Amino acid sequence: MLMLKKFFKCRPTSRFGLTNQRDLNVAIIGQSSFAAEVYKLLLKNGHRVVGVFTILDKGNRQDPLAAVASENNTPVFKIKSWRKGEIALPEIVAQYKQVDAELNVLPFCSQFIPMEVIEHPKHKSICYHPSILPKHRGVSAINWTLMNGDKEAGFSIFWADDGLDTGPILSQKSCAVLPDDTVDSLYNRFLYPEGIKSMAEAVDMVANGTAPVIPQSTEGSSFEPSVRKKALQKIDWSRSGVDIHNFIRGLDSSPGASTIIDKTEVKLYKSSIWTNETPTGDHVTVDTIQFPAIVHNNGLLITCNDGIKINIERLSVDGKMMAASNYGKADTVQETIDYTDQEKAYIPVVESIWKNILNMEVGKDTHFFQSGAGSMDVVRLIEEIKDKLKLTLKNDDVYMYPVFSDFCNTLVKRSRGSTDDNIRVEYDPVVIEVNNMKLQFAKQLFINGQFVDSESGKTLECINPADESVICSIQCASEADVDQAVIAASRAFEGEWSEMSPRDRGAILYKIADLLDKNREELATIESIDSGAVYTLALKTHIGMSIDVWKYFAGWADKIHGQTIPISHARPNRNLTFTKKEPYGVCGIITPWNYPLMMLSWKMAACLAAGNTVVMKPTEVSPLTALKFAELSVEAGFPAGVINILPGLGSEAGRAIAEHPDIRKVGFTGSTATGHAIMKASAESNLKKVSLELGGKSPLIILDDCDLDKSVRMSMGGVFFNKGENCIAAGRVFVESSIHDKFIDKVVEEVKKIKIGNPLERDTHHGPQNHKAHLDKLINYCKKAKNEGAELKIGGKRLDRPGYYFEPTVFTGVEDHMFIAQEESFGPIMAVTKFSSSDLDAVIKRANSTDYGLSSGIFTKDISKALRFAEKIDAGTVFINTYNKTDVAAPFGGFKKSGFGKDLGEEALNEYLKTKCITVEY
Known about the structure:
7-stranded antiparallel β-sheet, alpha/beta, 7-stranded mixed β-sheet, single chain
C-alpha cells in the first residue's frame, strides 16, 4: 500500500480552486486489477485519464492496469522507481508533469511517490487505503485488521500528504467482520467492490467541489509493519485460541501463518473455531502446543493451550498447497476424466484466460503461482471463468490445483456438480443388512457439518414397526444442542451461504437432488424399516417426491426478485420505490413421522432456496432418513452450519426451537395441539414468523352421476394411502343415497383384496402403522365409533402378528355429532355418511362444520356442481374427480385449525422471505 516518505514539509491546509466542472484530467498511479477497475469506472463517468503510471512488467506479464490502459490507447508509463534514496528522479518527475493532470488518483500503489508529484496537480492527490484511518496505517492494513480481531473493517480515501497515510480524510466506509473472514473474503465481499465505487465517487466530488477535507485524528492511530517480514508470520502458541485464529485468518491467503508440525515448517490457512465434538484421526505434534493435533476428514484440529479448538482446512508444505485432511498421507493422483465434447471446448477458453493473465504460453504442467501469479490474479481467473464459461469456482480450487491440467480436471468436475473430491462426513455408523442391501447411516446429531453426541447424552430407540425390533439408539437433542445448532446456522448465514450467489446455491440444491436419486433404494429401505412405509410407495412418493421438490426449488433459487412500484413524487424531485425479497436468517423446521424425508424436503428446499439456514427437528420416532440426508448434504457441498438436524423430543428440542430468540421463522407440520404450543412460544419469545400445516378432517363428496368404479378406487386411495397416515386423507366420505349401498359393497370387496404385510415385500399394499402409541389410538378410535352407533363393515382391529398392523377399516352410518365425524383418525379408517338429497349446498354446509380445512374432494360429471363445491368449501385444497393429486408446483396448506401458510409451489418461498421496501429520492 502507499507509503509517502517525507520529501519536504508542504502540507496543504485547504483544497482551493475546485470548480463545478463535471470531468477532470486524471493521472492514475498504481497497479493491480483494483486500479484497472477504477480506471474503467472513471472513463465511464466521463473523466479523462491522461496517463497511467504503474510498475515494470514481471517477466512477460504486464500489470492489469497497464494492460487495460494500453487497450484504450492511454499513455502508460512503467516506472521502476520514482526516486533514488531521498531524492526524486528528475527525469521521472518531468515525464509525469508532461501529462498535465488536474488530479492524481492512487487506487493501489506500492511505490514511494515524491511530494513533487503528490502536490503538482491543481487538485493534488487522493489515495485509497484499506483501513478505517487513523487505525492500521501501513502496507498490511487488511491483515492487521483481522490479526487484531477487529469487529469492523473498512477503507479510507484520503488526501495524500508527506506522512504515512496521515493526510486528511475525504471519505470512509465500513463493514462488519464476520467470524471466519479472511483477507480474501473481506476484500472480495466489501473492500474491492465498494472501494472501486467509492474511488470513482471521490473523483466526482473533487470535480464538483464537494470533496471534504477532514484532518485525521491522532486518537486510536496505529502503524503496523509489513507482514512480509518472516518473523511476523510465525504463530505464537502461547496466545489465546481466539487470538491464534485471528492471526491465521489475517495471513490467509498470503503470506500464510507459519509453524512447525512434526519438525517440518508448515503454513496454515482457512482457520475456524471448532465447537463440535472432537473427531477421531491421526495425531501430530504442533510446535509448542501441549495437546496433540488431529488430522481428520475435515482438516487439522488443534487444541490451543487455553482449550479453544481451531480447525485448519489447508496447509502449505514445502511450497505445495494441500488439504489439511491429507497431511501425512501419500500424495493422491487426480483421477483420469473422459471429457465430453462440450467439456473439451472448455479447455482452449481456460488456456486463453491463463495465457492472458500470465502473459506466456501455457502447457499442461504450467504452475499458476510459479509463473508469477498472485492473489489478485486468482480473483481475475475466477471472474473470467464465471463470465466466459458460466461456471463458478472458489479461490481454493486455484490454490489446491494450481497446475493447468489439474485445474482443468477440477473445473470439469465442478461443471458436473461435483464439490471437493470425495467429501464425506465422519461418524460412527449403524450398519445393517436388509432388503438385499447393506445400509449405513448415522445415529448422532448433525450440527455445523459434523455428527456429534448430544450434550445430555440421552438417547432414543428407533423401532421397526414391521416386527417391533430395535433398529438402533440415536442421540436425543437437548436445549443446549439446539443453541449450538443455532450458533452454527447463524455463522453460516452471515458467512459463506449468504456470500454465495443464488445460482450457486441452486446448484447445490440440484446436487442434493441428484444424490437422493442416486441413493433412492437405500433411502426407501431406511424409510420403510423406520416408518413402516411400503417400500414401493416409498420409492415413488416418499423419496421420489423429495427428489422432485429439491429440483423444483433449485430452479427458483436465482429467480427471487422484488418489484418497482410507482408512487407519488416529492416535487420538484422524483422518487423510485422498489422492493427486495430477503431471507429471514436462521429458520426452525419441525416435521412429522408420516413422510419423514418428504416433509423435510417440502420445507427445507424452499427455505434454503430463499437463502436461509436451518435448524431442523425430525420426529423422534422416524428420524433415520433425516440423518442420512444430513450425510448426503455434506457430499452435496452445503457449507457447514447451513443444515443442522437434531432428532429429539418435541417437549425439549421442539420447544427450544420455538422459543429460541435467534430463530426468526418456524415451519411446522403436525398436530393442531402442538401448533397451538408453537404459536404461543413463538409469540412470547421474539414474535417469530410461523407457518403451520396441522390436522385435517377432509370431506370427500360422491354424487350419483359419478364414475362409480373410479370413485371407489380414488376414495380408497384417499383414505388408505400410506396406511391412512396422510394429512389430506379423506377423513369423511359423503355418498349420495342412491349409490350408497353399491359404493359400500364395492369398497368392502376391494378392501378384502388389500395385502397387509411386510412393507419390504414388493407385492405388499398395506404396511404397519408407524408406532405403538398410534396403533393404540386407532383401536380406541374404532371402539368409540362403535359405541356412538357407527356401523363397522370391515376391519377395526389389530392383526394378530408381530408388528403394528391395523386392518383397513370401513364405518357407515356416521352422523355429524359423532367423534368419528369430527376428529381425525390419521389412520386407514373410512367414515361414510349417506346423504339423501341432491341439495349440494346442504352437504357442503355439513362438510364445512368441522374445525379443519386442509383438503376436500368431489366426484361428479356436473361441472357446475363441481365448481360450486370448489367455491363454497372451506379448505385449502380441492380435488375434482381425483384425490391425493399433489405436485411440487402446486401450493399446499390449509384453513381454520388446519393451519396457515403454504408448502410447495412459488407461494412456499414467501413463507421464508421477508419484503423490504426501499424509496430513493433524486
